[in-house]
Design goal:
Bound molecules: S-adenosylmethionine
Number of strands: 20
Shape: elongated
Structural class: alpha/beta
Radius of gyration: 25 Å
CATH architecture of the largest domain: Alpha-Beta Complex
Helix content: 25-40%
Number of helices: 15
Number of domains: 2
CATH class of the largest domain: Alpha Beta
Length: 478
């Protein structure tokens, strides 16, 4: 348990549909509940795997197909470790508060074994959202002990869910009529994948939905998955909710505020021409000679992405980096500032004055020597000291701010709050280590403080290695 919060296992049986599964995983990764796991069980003969490790996401590829959906659900429950179990259908979407809200309702009521909101969003072809009375097993939350009380799923395909739910005594159900801004789940129909229920009930002598699914699986049925949304579903939901008779203005406002930190995470409309293979710039070869090795703190692709971001920053401000260390990111940023005829990069670091966590063999002398070799010595202003002290006295307008200094919640937040007000409209903010498992506080600052501020547009997440999250300041670009 994390500070009294139970571990929640999200149960995701899947079969040969990696393209849609990536969206279900993304919807899990957006959840604001900390103590969670996603248990994916794939019994298609083509395995799926993730492009890298994601916290709490487990993929089990089985060597053989299981006999029916009931058995597959039972298998998934057996693998799960949580005290609360939530179904997580691979072709549906879950609002980012789904786990938190379900736990908040079910956990304090030990006499209740299962929870459902009585309504849910429903969409067709990723459009045409409306609020439906909830019949969906996909949004049930269950205590693990429920399985001891009522037994396991029956050996059925279509209908295993209803048969199971019918065994839960009425008085053990907790049901809640959620308002539009509280709905937890989006049932999806017509997004290119077959539903077992769509094939009708199992009948003696007839091919079951289970068999027909195998025949109708599209290619590719397996492969490497990068979690993400194919389109901005939360924006679609907001757009459509605005026109619905059962969503009043107050509810629409509440829904918009709740979704604001999450929608369009990852699409970065102005960064669509990012292509690490093709992006090239003057001075790149020298940088690659000195920094060609993938330094663990700054990988080659990330440094190159920073250089690319620098091409998108507006004129009218300087580039600032908090956390320069070896000078890899500094070299790329200073090079781009020089190429664009902007002033010197402002490089802030404590170097040998840093707390033990950052101590190593890097020094300001080594940093300067590398800049010298790159011919960038005049293109870097070295500011040795604590970024919080510098930030409190900062005056210069900034067109690109790269935060890679103190990675604690307080430290990253202070860097953001002290420096970002100096970013000019259209200017870029970027945080390093957004996906790094050792630095969850960087993600927290972005999700709790940066995004909800409403000051930023076009957020984008480079999901390479340690990860870079970036966005543009709203307002007229200068
Ligand atoms: C992850 S490293 C930066 C890596 C660098 N961007 C690169 O490309 O090599 C983090 C750096 O932040 C510095 N740092 C940590 N806390 C700081 C603070 N409060 N003020 C200034 N620098 C700080 C550390 O000294 C360390 O060198």
């Amino acid at each position: 348990m994390v500070e009294g919060l139970p571990l929640v296992s999200c149960l995701c049986p899947t079969y040969g549909r990696p393209q849609i599964l990536r969206e279900a995983i993304w919807s899990f990764l957006q959840q604001d509940y900390p103590n969670k796991e996603l248990m994916i069980v794939n019994d298609h003969d083509q395995p799926v795997c993730l492009d890298r490790a994601y916290p709490g996401v487990f993929v089990h590829n089985l060597p053989e197909r299981l006999a029916n959906l009931g058995e597959k659900r039972n298998h998934t429950v057996r693998l799960a470790r949580g005290e609360i179990l939530l179904n997580w259908d691979d072709d549906d979407l879950y609002l980012p508060w789904r786990i938190t809200d379900s736990v908040r309702r079910l956990w304090p009521n030990p006499e209740k074994w299962a929870f459902k909101a009585t309504r849910a969003w429903s969409s067709t072809n990723n459009k045409r959202y409306h609020i439906a009375r909830n019949l969906f097993h996909a949004q049930i939350a269950m205590r693990r002990s429920l399985f001891d009380q009522v037994g396991w799923y029956a050996a059925l395909n279509s209908g295993q869910d209803m048969e199971f739910e019918a065994r839960i005594p009425k008085e053990r159900w907790l049901q809640y009529q959620a308002t539009p801004s509280e709905l937890l789940y989006v049932y999806r129909w017509g997004n290119g994948v077959a539903h077992i229920s769509g094939f009708g009930r199992d009948r003696e002598g007839k091919a079951t939905g289970w068999d027909l699914m195998a025949e109708r699986t599209r290619k590719p049925a397996g492969g490497v998955i990068t979690p993400g949304f194919d389109r901005d579903h939360w924006q679609d939901l907001l757009d459509e909710a605005a026109g619905l008779p059962d969503v009043d203005a107050a509810e629409l406002f509440a829904l918009t505020r709740r979704l604001e930190p999450y929608h369009s995470l990852g699409d970065g409309a102005y960064l669509t021409d990012w292509d690490p293979e093709r992006f090239a710039f003057a001075g790149q070869a020298e940088l690659e000679t000195i920094f060609g090795r993938n330094f663990t703190m700054m990988m080659n692709n990330e440094a190159k992405f920073l250089a690319y971001l620098a091409t998108k920053a507006p004129d009218g401000g300087c580039f600032v980096e908090i956390g320069s260390r070896s000078g890899k990111s500094a070299g790329y940023l200073a090079r781009m500032a020089a190429n664009r005829g902007l002033g010197p990069l402002q490089s802030i670091d404590l170097w040998d004055l840093a707390p033990p966590r950052w101590q190593g063999t890097e020094t300001v002398e080594k940093f300067l020597e590398r800049m010298e070799r790159l011919g960038l010595r005049e293109q870097v202003t070295v500011l040795k000291g604590d970024s919080r002290v510098m930030g409190a006295a900062w005056q210069k307008p900034i067109s690109l701010l790269f935060i890679d200094g103190d990675h604690s919640y307080e430290g990253a937040r202070a860097d953001y709050e002290l420096f970002s007000p100096h970013i000019i409209p259209g200017g870029i903010i970027a945080f390093h280590d957004y996906c790094h498992n050792h630095f969850p506080d960087v993600r927290r600052v972005v999700r709790d403080v940066v995004l909800p501020s409403g000051l930023w547009s076009d957020p984008y997440e480079l999901r390479d290695h340690n990860g870079i999250w970036c966005a543009r300041k709203r307002g007229e670009s200068v």
